[in-house]
Write a structure and sequence with these properties.
The protein has 2 domains: 286 residues, Type I PLP-dependent aspartate aminotransferase-like (Major domain) (Aspartate Aminotransferase, domain 2, 3-Layer(aba) Sandwich), CATH 3.40.640.10; 145 residues, Alpha-Beta Complex (Aspartate Aminotransferase, domain 1), CATH 3.90.1150. 39% of the residues lie in helices and 13% in strands. It has 16 helices and 12 strands. It has a 7-stranded mixed sheet, with helices on both faces. Helix 1 runs antiparallel to helix 11 and helix 3 runs parallel beside helix 11. The protein is globular. The protein starts with 6 loop residues before the first helix and ends with a helix. Pyridoxal-5'-phosphate binds next to helix 4 and helix 5.
C-alpha cells in the first residue's frame, strides 16, 4: 500500500485499496448493493451502535464510495471524507452539520450562484441565517460574528472575480472564537490544500475537475481532523449536546473515543445527515468519479498550463477589454495566489470583450471548439455568460457584489492542445469585433 504524500500517486493507489479482496480485480469494482449481510446479531447491533465500524446500508456507506472518499481525503491532507450526491448537497450538509434553526454563519460574498440561492433563500426558510462578508478585508468575518455563529464558509477560487480567498487570515480569526472555516475547493483541487492553511473542512463538487469529464454529478465533505469541536460547547452545541436521534451521543466526545481520531464532523455528517436526509452518491457515480480522479493531478497541470497560455494571448488581443485571472490581481489579493497555490493557478479565466454584452454574445456564438455550457472543470474547454445564465437568479446588487458585470465571460480552459485553444479564442474574438450583418445593411 502506497503511503505517498503525492497527489499523482494517491489518485491511483490511495484508498487502502490494492485489489478487490474477493476477486483480486485491480480496478475498483462497483459494489451495486443496497445492503450488507451481518455476521450475527451481535455484529449487527455493534455496527448500529457504532461500537464497530462496517457496512450497514448504501444510503450511509458503500465500498466503492469508500475508496473514493479515502483518496480525496488523502489528497486534501484530511482525515476522513463523506461523499454525497452533488456539490450542492455537500454545501448543504456542511452547513446543516453545524447549524440548526436560530443559528447563523458568515459566508464570503464571492460564491457560486447556486450556493448564494441555497444560503440566502432555502436555509433562511429553515431558520438558518447567512451573514455575508466581503473577503477583501478578512476582519469583515470577525465583525459579523455573534454567539450564535457556528461556522465561516468560502470558496478557494471563486468565479467570476477569481480572487483567491484569505484562507489562513480568516481561519485564524475563526479559531480565536472556536468557529471552523469550511472551504469549497471545487475550482482548485491538487493546486490548493485549504486544510494545510487552517480550514477545518473542505467541500468539493466532484462534478468538476475531479470527475473531470462532464459525465457525473457528485460532491463530498472532507474532515480536516484539525478542529477541536469540544473546546467551546456553547459554540458548537451539535457536537456537545446529547443527540436524541442517536441514543444521546455527544458527537464531539464519542467519535474520538470510538475511532481514536478527530473525525466527529465526518461521522456526524454520515450517520445523521446521510441517514436522515438521504442524498448519497450512487456507487456507479462514485466509480465514474474514481476514473476521473485517477488522472486529475495530471489534468490539473495541463489545465493550468493551457490557462496561462490563453491568458497571455488574451491580454494582448485588441478586442479584449480586461482579463481576470488569479495572477493578474495586484497587491494583497495577488499575493494570496502565490501564498496558497502551488503547481498552477487554475483553469478559470474571465474576460470582458470590447463592445459589452452584444460583443460578448457574438464571441460566445462564434466559438467553434469551446462548448457553451453551464459547467467548469471538464477536460474540454468551456465558455459561458454568467449574467444571463449561472448567476441570472441573482439581483443586480448581488451580481455586482459577486463581480458579475454585464459583459463578463467565464472560460474554463480544457486540456486540448494550447494552439487549438488559442486559435478558437482568436477567431471568436475577431468575429466579436466585426459589425453584424444587420448593422451593415
Ligand atoms: N461549488 C462550486 C464552486 C460550483 O461551481 C458548483 C457548481 O457549479 C457547486 C459547488 C455545485 O456543484 P454540483 O453542480 O455538483 O451540485
Amino acid at each position: 500500500m502506497s503511503k505517498s504524500k503525492n497527489a499523482e500517486t494517491i489518485a491511483l493507489h490511495g484508498g487502502e485499496y490494492r485489489s478487490d479482496p474477493a476477486t483480486t480485480a485491480v480496478a475498483v469494482p462497483i459494489y451495486r448493493t443496497t445492503s450488507y449481510q451481518f455476521n450475527n446479531t451481535g455484529h449487527a447491533a455493534n455496527l448500529f451502535a457504532l461500537k464497530e465500524f462496517g457496512n450497514i446500508y448504501t444510503r450511509i456507506m458503500n465500498p466503492t464510495n469508500d475508496v473514493l472518499e479515502k483518496r480525496v481525503a488523502a489528497i486534501e491532507n484530511g482525515l476522513a471524507c463523506v461523499t454525497v450526491g452533488s456539490g450542492q448537497a455537500a454545501s448543504t450538509f456542511a452547513i446543516l452539520n453545524v447549524c440548526q434553526s436560530g443559528d447563523n454563519f458568515v459566508s464570503s460574498t464571492d460564491l457560486y450562484g447556486g450556493t448564494v440561492n441555497l444560503f440566502t433563500h432555502t436555509l433562511k426558510k429553515l431558520g438558518i441565517e447567512v451573514r455575508y462578508a466581503d473577503p477583501s478585508d478578512p476582519k469583515n468575518f470577525e465583525k459579523a460574528i455573534d454567539d450564535r455563529t457556528r461556522c465561516f464558509y468560502a470558496e478557494t477560487l471563486p468565479n467570476p472575480a477569481l480572487r483567491v480567498f484569505p484562507i489562513k487570515e480568516v481561519s485564524d480569526i475563526g479559531r480565536k472564537h472556536n468557529i471552523p472555516l469550511i472551504m469549497d475547493n471545487t475550482a482548485a483541487p491538487v493546486i490548493c490544500k485549504p486544510l494545510d492553511h487552517g480550514a477545518a473542512v473542505v467541500v468539493h463538487s466532484l462534478t468538476k475537475f475531479i470527475g473531470g469529464h462532464g459525465t457525473v454529478i457528485g460532491g463530498c465533505l472532507v474532515d480536516g481532523g484539525n478542529f477541536d469541536w469540544t473546546a467551546d460547547p456553547k459554540r458548537q452545541p451539535l457536537f456537545n449536546e446529547p443527540d436524541m436521534s442517536y441514543g444521546g451521543a455527544k458527537w464531539g466526545e464519542v467519535v474520538p473515543q470510538l475511532t481514536g481520531a478527530n473525525v466527529s464532523f465526518a461521522v456526524r455528517a454520515r450517520v445523521c445527515l446521510l441517514r436522515d436526509l438521504g442524498a448519497p452518491l450512487a456507487p456507479d457515480n462514485a466509480w465514474g468519479i474514481i476514473q476521473g480522479l485517477e488522472t486529475a493531478p495530471l489534468r490539473m497541470k495541463q489545465h493550468c498550463s493551457n490557462a496561462e497560455k490563453a491568458v497571455d494571448f488574451l491580454t494582448k488581443h485588441k478586442n479584449v477589454e480586461r482579463v481576470i485571472y488569479p495572477t493578474l490581481h495586484k497587491g494583497a489579493v495577488g499575493d494570496r495566489t502565490k501564498k496558497y497555490f502551488s503547481g498552477g493557478n487554475g483553469a478559470l479565466v474571465g474576460i470582458e470583450v470590447k463592445g459589452g454584452v452584444e460583443a460578448g454574445k457574438k464571441f460566445i456564438e462564434a466559438l467553434k471548439m469551446f462548448y457553451h455550457v453551464a459547467n467548469i472543470g471538464d477536460a474540454r474547454s468551456l465558455a459561458i455568460h454568467p449574467a444571463t445564465t449561472t448567476h441570472s437568479q441573482l439581483t443586480e446588487e448581488e451580481l455586482l457584489a459577486a463581480g458579475v458585470t454585464p459583459g463578463y465571460i467565464r472560460l474554463s480552459i480544457g486540456i486540448e492542445h494550447p494552439d487549438d485553444i488559442i486559435a478558437d479564442l482568436k477567431q471568436a474574438l475577431d468575429a466579436s469585433g466585426k459589425p453584424s450583418l444587420k448593422a451593415v445593411s
